[in-house]
Design brief:
The strands form two sheets. The protein has a five-stranded mixed sheet. Helix 9 runs antiparallel to helix 10 and helix 12 crosses helix 13. Helix content is 54%, strand content 7%. By secondary structure, it is an alpha+beta fold. The chain folds into two domains: 335 residues, Beta Polymerase, domain 2 (2-Layer Sandwich); 36 residues. A hairpin with an 8-residue loop joins strand 6 and strand 7. The protein contains 17 helices and seven strands. The longest helix has 34 residues. It comes from Halalkalibacter alkaliphilus. Pfam families: NTP_transf_5. This is Nucleotidyltransferase family protein.
């Protein structure tokens, strides 16, 4: 595949990280780098375990190798703890007749990297049927987890606007995310039953632990990374790894056509191929379109900056660019559904004009008025 994206604005430090992360990298020449920036980037992009394994035989400064080694060792203990908790939760949920599909975490590290120590995970994400949410919460509370009750809802919109709820164990310092959808709504998704029928079983656990099937996993990882602008390189390395595996690429394309947008699949394939020399196969060609190239170029914005979308407040220029980019990722159908969803009442409407629950239906006709009122007040403050 011919190179098509402009990476001139990416720092030398991140460019060198790209080189180190390539599977067949044999370049031992040491460039002049800002090593503090290099280390900050290794943490920000969550790729320090891989970099630790890559620099062991290179003539990097001693403090760089020690820094990476310390974080690598800490990650080993973290991943071992997550593995133990994952197996425990999976077994308890199974005994309670709750089918569970783990989305990331230790199962992903083993499946894609072949080694728990080479990928980081901060929490456990798993998908269950929505009808079991209440029972799942009871189980986690019994295990000592506390719910982060941050979801605000009007007219029960939480079911489709949101996709997971978070629980935290204060003693174990462990975070779990229970998903009832793969991604935030609105939008079409395969049913849990479909995903369950195509599931894979982890080969690295004592008790049965299940994860998404290969094609579903690729679509999930692409949609998740794209939604975050590929602002963490770890997500793109996941794509690099899964592109090496045997996937039914015709099936993958069908899944994107039905549930997402094939151009987004193309964006991921282009970025992984060009930045990380991921293996490009002939079957991937239908994904590589002019629109996919354009989306890949847009994603370079996030790599030129150390963008953190997870910590508020996100700078206004970043937030504005990200909102525009997210819209550009959508298919025509997704854009139509998204625009229609804006007509549905938001929690902000209830905060602006509190109404008793039986009158919440009035938020539909009142939404444009309440939106305009908030906009006017914001401009007046500025």
């Amino acid at each position: 595949m011919d190179k098509s994206i402009n990476t001139a604005g990416i720092s030398s430090e991140l460019t060198y990280i790209f080189e180190l992360l390539k599977d067949n990298n044999t370049n031992t020449r040491m460039p002049e780098l800002d090593w503090e920036l290099f280390l900050n980037l290794s943490l920000h992009h969550r790729v320090f375990p891989l970099l630790h394994s890559k620099v062991k035989n290179l003539d990097v400064p001693v403090h760089v190798s020690k820094f990476l080694q310390v974080h690598y060792q800490q990650n080993i203990f973290r991943m071992m703890s997550l593995t133990g908790e994952m197996e425990k939760v999976s077994e308890i949920f199974s005994n309670s007749k709750i089918r569970t599909l783990f989305l990331k975490g230790p199962v992903l590290a083993h499946d894609l990297y072949g080694d728990l120590s080479l990928r980081t995970s901060s929490d456990l994400d798993f998908l269950i049927p929505i009808e079991h949410l209440e029972r799942a919460e009871e189980i986690l509370v019994e295990l000592g987890y506390e719910k982060d009750d941050y979801i605000e809802s009007v007219l029960n919109d939480w079911r489709w606007r949101h996709h997971h709820v978070t629980y935290y164990h204060p003693v174990k310092q462990m975070k779990l995310e229970i998903h009832w959808r793969l991604h935030p709504g609105p939008g079409k998704e395969p049913s849990f039953q479909e995903l369950w029928e195509r599931r894979n079983k982890s080969s690295n656990t004592k008790s049965p632990v299940y994860l998404l099937g290969k094609e579903d996993l690729f679509v999930f990882l692409v949609a998740h990374g794209a939604r975050h602008g590929w602002s963490r390189l770890r997500w793109l390395v996941d794509i690099q790894k899964i592109m090496k595996q045997e996937l039914d690429w015709a099936k993958v394309y069908q899944l994107f056509q039905k549930y997402h947008n094939p151009h987004v699949g193309g964006q991921a394939i282009i970025l992984a191929s060009e930045l990380l020399d991921a293996e490009f196969k002939e079957e991937m060609t239908p994904f590589v379109t002019n629109t996919a190239m354009k989306l890949a170029q847009e994603a370079i914005f996030y790599l030129e900056r150390m963008v953190n979308l997870h910590t508020d407040p996100v700078p206004e220029d970043i937030s504005s660019y990200h909102a525009s980019h997210l819209f550009s990722l959508m298919s025509t159908q997704q854009k139509a559904i998204h625009l229609l969803s804006l007509l549905h009442p938001f929690p902000e409407d209830a905060q602006t004009l509190p109404l008793p629950k039986p009158l919440h239906f009035l938020y539909f006709p009142l939404r444009p008025v309440l939106w305009a009122w908030r906009k006017t007040r914001k401009q007046a403050v500025l």
